[in-house]
């Protein structure tokens, strides 16, 4: 931390390599969006000025990481870059078996297959979508037991990612041997990037031990979680984020991780274990689907960059800036009256689009309305986390059943945008907020059977104030 006489938190880096932002006009954006069937997933990179679709694999690497890329060892078996990564991960987690994969979902698939999830249950705070999909694909059952406050967008509970320990114990008692594992997602991505407290991890680990069930972390954002523990949990402020992270890992039997988040790399995943027999089975599957155990689906240079990223991510100047920049956007939007999911999470701000647009019914996709308004306004890309993403196609003429919430997520790539980008974004959102009464809903023209949000074709509906079924759409 700098002791300069200022309360400002500045970006704790200077910029050595720059990439121009694509700038577009409103008329161009209207044309691009129409060509993309009004689904921002179908836009191209060159059409997006500020991309807040995801924080996964979209961050900037440091000079030290790029340096390590150059000296990465591409040896097929026994890459020195693997041994360096293994040393860093063992040091951080205390877990002896370090298995690299090409990304998080590969680690999940291998873990659930090797541990034998078929016919058994995984008890989590919330499963991330690929985690749930892997459990279910392998004929297991994914059960979410997040605390009640974690389901309430207005609750200011500091650890809304916590698992409900009473419900966890009830499930462990009732289902015993058919529980494969307890899994804590840190931070809780599906629940808005909310942290899990150290006390909760300790409590869940003690219960898991008592019932003889292993406990794992889905550790994609372990460093952001550790920082929020330091900030919010009584008795933790004097410890370093790294010490807290090491205690989190020390409490569990293993972890899966998408390194595209807190690994500070553009591609990579990890599976780490303490059980030698499970590690042996996992490595066998790894060879089948990813590659030899000393590279696991990654190039040697990727392993090298990851080893550096996992060291840099617990740097407190970085974490302070990271969490502060999300909170900065949150506070500014709160001030203009934007309805938000509370409190600010670690990697994203979530806007309650159903509340912002009370004239757009859930089956008319208020989240999509906001995502598309934002794109048309300034070329900013967010993502709908609502009825298009989680709802299912309705039967016949009935409107699609809606998701519990219609949110829009603005996710922050790591070390990528500066405060002036965020100030500009705040102006854009203020303008979208001011014109909220004019926004129109959408209907689905075409959708896939599963994961429809990624490929659906949509069309804007007439504004409820407009007579007839005329499609009002700028630029067409
Ligand atoms: C991103 C993510 C995953 C999946 O990882 P990929 O690298 O995208 O395959 C799993 N769990 C959580 C919590 C995630 O955020």
| Count of discrete structural domains | 2
- Helix/strand class: alpha/beta
Q: Could you tell me the radius of gyration in angstroms? A: 22 Å
Query: Which fold name corresponds to the CATH topology of the largest domain?
Result: Aspartate Aminotransferase, domain 2
Low-confidence parts, pLDDT < 50 over ≥5 residues?
Answer: 468-476
How far apart the termini lie comes to: 52 Å
Bound molecules: pyridoxal-5'-phosphate
Write the CATH architecture name of the largest domain. 3-Layer(aba) Sandwich
Oligomer: single chain
Helical content stands at 25-40%
Strand % is: 5-15%
Q: Using DSSP, what is the number of strands?
A: 14
Average pLDDT score: 94
- CATH-assigned homologous superfamily of the largest domain: Type I PLP-dependent aspartate aminotransferase-like (Major domain)
Number of helices: 16
CATH class of the largest domain: Alpha Beta
Keywords:
476 residues; alpha/beta; Aspartate Aminotransferase, domain 1; Aspartate Aminotransferase, domain 2; 2 domains; seven-stranded mixed beta sheet; three-stranded antiparallel beta sheet; 16 helices; 14 strands; 38% helix; 13% strand; globular; binds pyridoxal-5'-phosphate
Protein architecture, described:
- The chain is of the alpha/beta class and 476 residues long.
- The chain has two domains: 26-48 and 315-460, Aspartate Aminotransferase, domain 1 (Alpha-Beta Complex); 63-312, Aspartate Aminotransferase, domain 2 (3-Layer(aba) Sandwich).
- It contains 16 helices and 14 strands.
- It has helices spanning 26-35, 63-71, 80-93, 104-115, 129-137, 165-175, 198-210, 222-232, 241-250, 276-289, 300-312, 316-335, 353-356, 366-378, 387-390, 419-434, and strands at 50-51, 97-101, 121-124, 141-144, 179-185, 215-218, 254-258, 269-273, 348-352, 380-381, 383-385, 407-411, 442-446, 457-460.
- Strands 2-8-7-6-5-3-4 form a seven-stranded mixed β-sheet, with helices on both faces. The chain has a three-stranded antiparallel β-sheet with strand order 9-12-11. Strands 1-10 form a two-stranded parallel sheet.
- Strand 3 (121-124), helix 5 and strand 4 form a beta-alpha-beta unit.
- Helix 1 (26-35) packs across helix 14 and helix 4 (104-115) crosses helix 10.
- The radius of gyration is 22 Å and the shape is globular.
- The termini are far apart.
- Residues 468-476 have low confidence and may be disordered.
- Residues 56, 103-105, 128, 130-131, 185, 189, 218, 220, 258, 260-261, 269 line the site of pyridoxal-5'-phosphate (PLP).
